Each structure stands twice: as C-alpha cells, then as structure tokens.
C-alpha cells in the first residue's frame, strides 16, 4: 500500500519525496510487531560506548539504523532481495555488518535478536558470527509475530526487560503459550 505510486496518504508521499526513517516505515508495514521491537529496543538497548544499540536487519543492505532515511527506490531494491539464509544477496551484507558490529562492540558484548529464531533466515548468518553471545527473549518461543510485538510493548510499558537466553542452546520451536491477557485501560 505504501509503495503504490497512487497512494496519497502522508507517509506514502513522504516516502516518495524525501524518504522515511526505516523504523517508521517498517512500523507502518508490519504494525504491532515492528512497533513492539522498536519500542523495546529503544527502551532497553545498552550498547558499549560509541556503538549504536539498535539495528534493523534488511534484505540486501545488512544492518541498518532505524533512523536511516529510506527512499521509495531503496525500498524497491530491498523488496527485490529474498530473505533467505542461502541467498548471498541477503546474507553477505548481513554478515559483513555483523562482523563489523562484533569488531566495534567487542567479543564480550551480548547481541539481542528480537526477530524470530524459528527459521534460519536470521539465526544461521548471525550465530556463525556471534555464537553464544547471540541472545533472544526466551518468552518468544512458540509465539507468533503479533504476540511477540504485544509482549514487547507490555514490557516497555511496565519498564521490565525480558529474560534472555543464548540462541545456540535454545529450543527454537515450542508449544504456543497462552494468549496475553487483555490490557485494561483506566
């Protein structure tokens, strides 16, 4: 919808004219899930001095700041790259940037992946670089995208960081946990 040449809403016009920050764009595209990831990362990232704390995994562009402006043409390029661990157009930029992040952050820095660990698309390239330092929220196992997004937004609201475990030793598929309780607004 936002990529349509005929779209007239403000975000689509901004994308075509000056570009949009990647985080804002992905929050529109994937709604609750990405909004939850971005809010959670902004609330709890604690990188070493001089190292950005938040990156978005992109197709063909590697790790990109959520504040980086993306144009309509750049989004078309990204959309043209299949997100598959076996695809060099996706994997090589991701591995390049992950290795640079490891170099800057140091071998003791833990990296938290807020994406799915159920498939190889993120895990396979990143695990080979970060090994046991690649962590994920253990409460993600068995949850779908929307549930993970809601969980992260609740965590931010409560000011309570989720618990992490290493991806390398994690159970990557599990039973679906109970639905999150409804939020009561007063």
Outline the secondary-structure elements.
Elements: H1 10-17, E1 20-21, H2 22-30, H3 32-44, E2 56-58, E3 62-64, E4 69-70, H4 72-79, H5 88-105, E5 111-112, H6 120-130, E6 134-137, H7 145-158, E7 164-166
Helix pairs in contact: 2-3, 3-7, 5-6
In short:
The chain has about 190 residues and is mainly alpha-helical. The protein contains seven helices and seven strands.
Q: Would you report the number of β strands? A: 7
Q: In sequence order, what are the helices and strands, one letter per element?
A: HEHHEEEHHEHEHE
Helix content: 40-55%
Beginning-to-end CA distance, first to last residue: 34 Å
Unreliable runs, pLDDT <50, ≥5 residues?
Answer: none
Give descriptors for this structure:
186 residues, mainly alpha, two-stranded antiparallel ribbon, 7 strands, globular
Q: Can you put this structure into words, describing what you see?
A:
With 186 residues, the protein is mainly alpha-helical. The chain has a domain at 31-67 and 90-169. Helices cover 44% and strands 10% of the residues. The strands form 3 sheets. It has a 3-stranded mixed beta sheet with strand order 5-6-7. The chain has a two-stranded antiparallel ribbon with strand order 1-4. A two-stranded antiparallel ribbon has the order 2-3. Strand 5, helix 6 and strand 6 (134-137) form a beta-alpha-beta unit.
